[in-house]
Amino acid sequence: MKALVIRSAVVAATGGLIFGFDTAVISGAEEQIQEQFHLSDAAIGFTVTTALIGTIVGAIVSGRLADRFGRKKVLYAIGVLYVVSAVGCALAPTSSVEVLQAFRFLGGLGIGASSVCAPIYTAEIAPPKFRGRLVGLVQFNIVLGILVAYASNAIIRTVLSDDPNAWRWMLGVMVVPAVLFLVLLPTVPETPRWLAGHGDLAGARATSERLCSTPAEADAQMAEIQETLAAEQGEKTKFYTRGHRKVILLAVAIAFFNQMSGINAILYYAPRVMQDAGASTNAAYLMSVAVGVMNLVATTAALTVIDRLGRRRLMLVGSVGYLVSLGFMAAVMFYYESDGRSFDSTSSILVLLGLMVFIASHAFGQGAVIWVFLSEIFPNSIRGRGQALGSLTHWVWAAITSFAFPPIIGAFGGGVAFSIFFGFMLLQLLWVIKVMPETKGIPLEEMAERLGLEAEATAPAPATKGN
Prior knowledge:
Low-confidence stretches: 455-467
Largest sheet: none
Number of helices: 20
Mean pLDDT: 84
Radius of gyration: 22 Å
Shape: globular
Order of helices and strands: HHHHHHHHHHHHHHHHHHHH
Helix content: over 70%
Distance between the termini: 38 Å
CATH architecture: Up-down Bundle
Structural class: mainly alpha
Strand content: under 5%
C-alpha cells in the first residue's frame, strides 16, 4: 500500500478527530454555560442540541455537494466551519446565548458533513483489502477526539477551577486541530472515482497511478470505474428507486440502531450520569476520561480485525456486549432507585464498570462498522447521497435520544432509560443475524452485484440524442 494512500486516509480522518472532539467537549462546558448565560434546564438542553441540528442539516446537504463539487472541496469547507465555530464559541458574549447557539450550529454543520464526506473519500482511495481499516481510521479519530475532549476538559477544569470562563477554553481549543486539518488538505488528491465521474479521465488515471501499487492495479481500477460509470449513466438523479430499496433500508437500519443504543446521549451527559450515580464532580470528570480510554482501546482492537473477521462478526460481538452492559446498568439503577436507597461510591463504581463494557461493545461493533458499512454498500453514482441518508438518520436519532435522555431519567429513573436502550439492542441483534450482509474485501464496483440489487438500479440508460 502506497504512502499517499495512508497519508490521504490520515488527513481525511483528521476531520473525524475534530468531529469527535466537538461531539464530546460540550459535556465539560455545559454546566458553566448554563450558569454564565442564566439558562433553564430546557434552554441548556436546546443549546447542547443546536450542534445536533447542525449535523442534521450538514448530513442532508453534504452528500449532493460532495457528488457535485468533489470530496476534497467539501473537506475544505468542513475545516473552515470547524475553525469559525471554535473561535465564535470561545468569544461568544454572555449577553446573547443565541450567538453561542449559532456558532454551535456551524460546528454541527461541519460534523454532519464530515460524517458523510470523510468515509466516502477514504473508501474511494483505499484498496479493497485494506478499506475497512482505512475507513475505520475515521472512527478511530472520532474516538480519539472524544478522549482528547474529555482529557482537555479535565485538565482545563483543574487548571482553571475558579475561572467562570473555563468553558471558553474548552470550546476554543478545537481551533488547533481544525487549522492543522486545513494545512494538510492540499497534500492529498481528489478521488479517481469522482474525477472520472465528472469527465476528467486523464486526472483520474494520473491519480489512480499515484494511489495504486502497480500499473496493472491502476489499469484494473480504471477499467472497473469506467465500466460502472457507463452502466450508471442516467441514474445520477434517481435515488429513491425500487432497485435501491435494499441498500436504503440497510443504511437506515444500521444508523437507527447505532443511536438507539444510547451512545450519543451517554457521551453528551457522561459527567452528569456519573454524578447522578454517586460520584463527586472531579471524580466524574476523571471517570469520563476512563470511558474515553476504553473507547479508544476497543476501537483500535476492532480496526485490527475488521478486514479479517468482517463487519457482521464485529456487529454480533458488539450487540451481545450492549445487552450485557445495558442490562447490568439498568439492574443497578433499579436497585438503587427502589426502596429509597441512596447512590454512593459503590453505585458509581458499578455504573462506571457498566459504562466501560458498554463503550467497549459500541467501539468494537457499531462504532467501528457503521461508517465503513455506509461507505461500501451504495453504487458509485449515489454514494454521496446514500452516505448522507445514513448520516442524516444517525444524527436525527442522536438529537432525539440526547434531548429525551435527561427528561426520561428525571421522570422515570435511569433503570427505565437503560431498559429502553436494551430493548432496541435486542432488535439490533436479530437484524444482524437475519438481515445484515457481509461486505469485507468486495471491490466497490462489484458491491451492487454482490448485494443482489435489482437490475433497474444499475442497468444502462436508453440512448438519447447528444449522448
